[in-house]
Amino acid sequence: MTLKRTLDMARAFRESDDTTPIVLMGYYNPIFHHGVEAFLQDAKAAGIDGLIVVDLPPEEDEELCIPAQKAGLNFIRLATPTTDDKRLPKVLTNTSGFVYYVSITGITGAAAAQASDVAPEVARIKAATDLPVVVGFGIRTPESSRDIASVADGAVVGSAIVAKLAEGETPAEVLSFVKGLAEGAHAA
Length: 188
Fold this sequence. Notes:
Layout: H1 3-14, E1 23-26, H2 28-34, H3 36-46, E2 50-53, H4 65-70, E3 74-75, E4 77-79, H5 88-92, E5 99-102, H6 115-126, E6 133-136, H7 142-149, E7 154-156, H8 159-166, H9 171-187
Parallel strand pairs: 1-2, 2-3, 4-5, 5-6, 6-7
Helix pairs in contact: 1-3, 7-9
């Protein structure tokens, strides 16, 4: 996959859907190589609504965060189980759109998120911001999607969908799985 192909896919999606938000999540290197100004223009033209750039800390806001917001793109930050009360205000500075709470430590898809563990952290973050708090990592079933959405403003599922594709499930089967996840979250 390339950044250009990703933007082309977003542009093609926008031809039939101009309401579903599109948030790109990744690393800064492809953006840097594309050129920040060119990337922001191309992302905006493709219909991108926000960015999650996992390797750019708040101390580097002038690099991409501030220019992205000036271009009309949300810049979404990650908060983690290790983001303490001292670090949280810095993480929330210049964050827009929503806060993405990483529910577990470790790698994505490795463990299951537990609503009982997530709830106090979501409450702590919500006490420090008016932004929605969306939880990701370790959400693999409609039930876990429902449980997490009951304590947060939303649930993010990535690895479980990729796993279904890797297992060779048909597009219809994957779409049915995603629909089940969404129904679980909306049932909360």
